[in-house]
Design a protein that fits this description.
The complex is a heterodimer of chains A (326) and B (90). Chain A is α+β, with helices and mostly antiparallel strands and 326 residues long. Chain A has eight helices and 17 strands. The chains are: A alpha+beta (326), B alpha+beta (90).
Chain lengths: 326, 90
């Protein structure tokens, strides 16, 4: 039997949803109080790491002319997560493309802005091709100095933790909910799930089609992460009459048009899933198949066609055998 | 002709024999039960979903949000919450 507290709030430009089961320890907070505690954590996380807030720790770091800057544990962790994603993706998920994002019109939050129709953008988009990492990658020159409590980077290099922030946040909240039977943390579509109870009652997670909004697949997940990257939410018109979106080809600094409009990835964590989904989308259909083969995933082509990669509904987690029906 | 004490003795002896037989059967029955092959347990699964909407006080929550409690009772099968979590572009 499972009893879950289900709460939703808005933060990080997205809806955040928490599903929290019963506490394992008698003196633990009730699921409702735990949800309030985690809500405060997420809002603090978002405020301190937002690229769009003048007073955030990230903005202070990016405006600092010195190469070595004091940074809190949270900021150091977020920067390290960005570097991990860059390493994992071979430089495709690059956290140092702030200047490029601002140049194409993403200098302020698009939260609440109605995206332009993706079909219009696709019609006028250039020839599809896979993105590539930047030849002189700046992220390799970032150093997180935990002993000194600082982040070091070449002066002028700005860092965007937004590309990995939701996955990292989902993982952090999931870690904090380890004392509950089962839990799902949904940070704007990037999810972390876990708990002993989820091993015998895995979560069913719907994959939404980026063009139609319909559920195209249902995944059963007991532990780990799942994330979706797509072009349909943050796409806008440029002053020149063209279209832009927020997933950039690091090699050109321009929006990547690869033949995919959406990619969903499973991973051992939400951070990994988010990294893999972005990587898949940036590589296009052929590269995505290779990237998603390990954990499984779903890709959606420009024409809306859906392709499933890997065995999505294999039991995942150390106790998932118990969830199998004989 | 048999006298009354003899009849009583025979009756008692018969009773003890029956009692011994029952006792031996009871002991053997336990061993038989443990040696029986495993039964396949066919479970009937019940699922009940109770959704309780808890209004949030404006003072406690400056931004909008919603909260529900979802309860499911089941056997060993996957039970989605009130609405399945969704992975989507954000």
């Amino acid at each position: 039997m499972s009893v879950e507290h289900d709460s939703t709030f808005h933060s990080m430009g997205s809806d955040i949803r928490l599903l929290i089961g019963r506490p394992l320890l008698r003196d633990a907070l009730s699921p409702a109080l735990a949800a309030e505690r985690e809500r405060a954590y997420v809002e603090d996380f978002a405020a301190r790491l937002s690229r769009f807030r003048e007073d955030s720790e990230l903005t202070v770091l990016n405006r600092e002319p010195r190469s070595r800057v004091p940074a809190s544990m949270l900021l150091r962790t977020a920067v390290r997560a960005g570097m991990w994603a860059a390493e994992r993706s071979g430089g495709l998920v690059d956290p140092t493309l702030v200047g490029e994002l601002e140049r194409i019109g993403y200098a302020r939050s698009l939260d609440g802005c109605e995206p332009v129709p993706l079909s219009d953008a696709l019609t006028s988009a250039p020839t599809r091709r896979p993105a590539k990492p930047r030849a002189r990658a700046q992220w390799k020159r970032i150093v997180v100095e935990d002993d000194a409590g600082r982040v070091a980077r070449p002066a002028g290099v700005m860092i965007d933790t937004g590309g990995t922030g939701k996955g990292l946040c989902a993982d952090a909240v999931a870690h904090r909910l380890a004392g509950y039977t089962r839990f799902a943390v949904d940070c704007g579509g990037d999810l972390a799930v876990g708990g002993v109870g989820a091993q015998v009652e895995p979560y069913e997670i719907a994959v939404e089609h980026p063009l139609t909004g319909e559920t195209i697949r249902t995944l059963r997940i007991a532990a780990g992460g799942v994330a979706t990257s797509g072009l349909n939410v943050r796409v806008w018109r440029t002053p020149g009459g063209g279209f832009a979106h927020h997933l950039l080809d690091p090699a050109t600094g321009l929006p990547a048009w690869t033949g995919l409009v959406g990619a969903t990835a499973l991973g051992s964590s939400a951070l990994e899933a988010e990294t893999l989904s972005k990587m898949a989308l940036l590589l296009g259909p052929i590269g995505a198949r290779r990237v998603l083969a390990e954990h499984g995933g779903v890709i959606v082509r420009d024409d809306g066609e859906v392709e499933t990669i890997g065995a999505l509904n294999e039991p995942r987690g150390w106790l998932t055998g118990l969830g199998r029906t004989a | 002709m048999t006298d009354r004490p003899t009849i009583a003795l025979f009756s008692l002896a018969g009773f003890l024999v029956v009692l011994a037989l029952l006792g031996s059967q009871l002991g053997g029955g336990g061993r038989a039960a443990s040696a029986r092959p495993r039964e396949v347990l066919v479970r009937r699964i019940y699922q009940t979903t109770v959704v309780e909407r808890v209004p949030r006080s404006a003072a406690a929550s400056p931004s909008t949000g919603s909260s529900t409690v979802t309860q499911s009772v089941s056997g060993s099968t996957s039970i989605p919450a009130a609405a399945a979590p969704v992975t989507r572009t954000s």
